[in-house]
Write a structure and sequence with these properties.
By secondary structure, the chain is mainly beta. It is built from no helices and 6 strands. The chain has a 6-stranded antiparallel barrel with strand order 1-2-3-6-5-4.
Length: about 80
Amino acid sequence: MKQLASLDAYLPVTLDGEQGLCLALGLDGLLVDSQAPLAPGQELGLRLFLKPGSRAVGRVLVREEIPTAQAPLRRWNLEVVSWE
């Protein structure tokens, strides 16, 4: 896993429209907890909501599931493919 900074508070995200929570972030990756049925190798559209009226948009690649999230959420290691 790449170097990621843990966040003081979760940031809301959407992955192809499915809601999730970002708990760690870096320039080229992030950790997201989501109920979405993701699969390693899948590429998704990302919207990361930074503050009201401000968001980052890009594409991510699902790398792996990390088995530490609280059910019913699943934790995913995502690689940033591009930022818009």
